[in-house]
């Protein structure tokens, strides 16, 4: 196997024996085969679209299948084998869709990756087939291959956000069209380096539209998030823990547990749920439990109820809690019970049969500072900047992880001067979201914007401030310090770069899939760079 799509890549180059995430070689091979098949699907779906032929089943399958290959999502070979076979069927359907709309077969040369494909019958044969389509393609120029990988990983990240929007009833043809075109483009050997650079930047731009669509879906269903205190302690009674990102799944569980004496706790990226009026109206949405995703192994053992993942990031479960763990949606683990559909009675029964918590109130933290909430007090914020009460804003956010060096973000937040404000989002905030940083004239110094997809809100805040001060975003008193882990972070970074935002600091290490030449391009064009020492980076940003 070879995989280097996440920040944990072994020795900073790639996992070759087993994934640091827990991915086994058979899973890696099946995911590689899925991605290879999706390139061919994208080729045909893009051609069909250009003829005016659109099939929503193909569109939705593309994002679901891509999502299945995101880090820490699907570890189940049987599940992935089914996705492989579905990919082949959808690719054939897309080809037939094009030919019907075209009135004739494709007249050009069909790339090898889009040629007719009948997957092997057995799972072991599929694994062997997957090994013939590894991540690295030695026939490609290394720099072109590097940017292709950035594009593919960007599409994976955007597919996750598009899937959440779709679950909430929001679809956009432009988003689906781009993902098909982008995946299909990787089969086109006539495209050069700058063609793929352009596609990568377009991926970031389209992702802003995608996360905007998801934000719209959240607001329409649950109203705009408002600043809300969340208790980190426990209530007496039975308990269910929900981990992941999907708000619709949480809502359905809240409905089904109403009046049953079960308290629902959020975990990691579900924390922002407490800010939505349409979700916090449920009195049994009790609070948030635990820290970032990489701590689940030790924290889940102490959770006396049922637990369910609705998206990444799942880790190998310990036997001590495996029988209380469930998965839903794209996330799966061998031997862990998977819930298909919206009936959570099995999860509820497990919670009722478990001991539950004793009453133990804890610290409160505040969430819900999306762009609607922040821009609602924009005049106050702008005045604080003009008077010098706020010297600078810092966006400190992104994915957390277990790799050493991530305490940089904690120390950075701790050491920032008291006349600065932090905007934070995604699970990287668990490094410092319990700090008591105070406020500036009533404006909290730590503003929790939300999930990783809520980078959209951070962008809207920055654009609004730039408009108010009649300057570009790069001229604002604003610095961006990002942590990354997986492919959603890749597409968020592409979104920021698509806006021309410069001087981003990225860590704790740079992606292994970026070649020196591609890195040099990013440095020259955007002055992007790795994090260094807290003191030196902070001094540079504060000027």
Describe the structure.
The protein is built from 19 helices and 16 strands. The chain has helices at residues 25-50, 56-68, 77-102, 123-130, 142-167, 173-185, 193-222, 247-257, 277-280, 296-300, 319-322, 345-353, 371-375, 378-386, 407-415, 455-468, 487-498, 516-526, 534-542; strands at 228-231, 238-243, 262-267, 285-288, 306-309, 325-328, 337-339, 364-367, 392-398, 420-425, 439-440, 443-444, 446-450, 478-483, 505-507, 529-530. The chain has a 6-stranded parallel β-sheet with strand order 4-3-2-5-6-7, with helices on one face. It has a 6-stranded parallel β-sheet with strand order 13-10-9-14-15-16. The longest helix has 30 residues, at 193-222. 51% of the residues are buried.
Short account of what is shown:
With 543 residues, the protein is an alpha/beta fold. It has helices at 25-50, 56-68, 77-102, 123-130, 142-167, 173-185, 193-222, 247-257, 277-280, 296-300, 319-322, 345-353, 371-375, 378-386, 407-415, 455-468, 487-498, 516-526, 534-542; strands at 228-231, 238-243, 262-267, 285-288, 306-309, 325-328, 337-339, 364-367, 392-398, 420-425, 439-440, 443-444, 446-450, 478-483, 505-507, 529-530.
List keywords for this structure.
single chain, 543 residues, six-stranded parallel beta sheet, 19 helices, globular
